[in-house]
Amino acid sequence: MHPTTLTLAALLALRLLPFESRAQAQAPGPSAVTAAPATDLAAPVIERGVDGTITLTCATPGAHIRYSLDGSDPGPKTGPYLAPILLRAGGVVKARAFSEDRKQKSALAEFKAEPVAGATPLPATLVPCTQDRDWPVYDWAKRHAAVTQLTREHKAALVFIGDSITQMFGGEPHDRGQPGKDVWEKYYAKRNASNLGFGYDFVENTLWRLQHGELDGAAAKVVVIMIGTNNVSRNTPEEILAGIDAIRGEVHRSQPSAKIVLMAIFPRGSKPDATRAKLDTINKLVAESVARDSSVTFLDIGSKFLESDGSILKETMGDYLHPTAKGYEIWASALEPLLAGLLGERK
After folding, report:
1. What is the CATH number of the domain that holds 55?
2. 216-242 b/e with 16+ CB inside 10 Å = b?
3. Is residue 22 over pLDDT 80?
4. What is the structure's pLDDT at 36?
5. Which domain holds residue 91?
6. Is 164 a catalytic residue?
7. Where residue 284 sits, what CATH number does that domain have?
């Protein structure tokens, strides 16, 4: 397990983060910046070590720290601070402390971190961070703690990793609607499967989860990955590829004997458009990237969701992004022959 992984009890006790600051000059030792509180919530304290690691704390008992790395003002749906943030290449950290009900917030804290000497600039897809964009549909931090525990307790042999498309497939915890639940039960209930899908995850959020122990307790024979669609509007195909490659690397680190099925990102939108074209480009880059890795099988079933004119029906994807029960049956049945072979099952 990653050394910064937190137990469930510690996770729930941690606080969220905001802070206002001056730009920090590079110094040989750690530095700290705080902001004056706007409410009775103390502003977070931000400390940066010589290795580029950012640590956030708040003096108010029971407060929760939420932070951003993309320049946005932290709000109640911003990612929670759960572990130190490695920011060797520099960047801007913004943070606020929130009350437990997320209705009260502290003053904004902002800190500009200069690059550590010799650090290589990284795209956002390679800077692991948390998120909570789908709250209150589900709580990202609580789901992380829950699936980490479930995967460890059950020693999951089959693991699915992804965003809401995977989360809505089925499996515990049932913390949101799952139109694919019956399909999941049909194909995977007897296979000791674990669902590590998180709604609204970008690749960097999934990377954070894997680096913080989510897969470490498994005994995976096969890991199915389908991630990247949420990054399409904000990252280049090359940046998204880099994030997917990093996720694949984390799976190899955590489960070195597991076989990986890397799904092509599913088509989206009612008809072919620029977004579909970008997805095609990403999928081609991913296929080329894994071609020489014998432990990875790239599986593109996108055409099975399309009609002859390239359109997607609402009966297949209700919002032209998330599969319906029919769509999940398409996915499961197309995956089944490959999965049975990799799991060593006799038909």
Report:
1. 2.60.40.10
2. bbbebbbbbbbbbbbbbeebebebbbb
3. no
4. 41
5. 8-121
6. yes
7. 3.40.50.1110
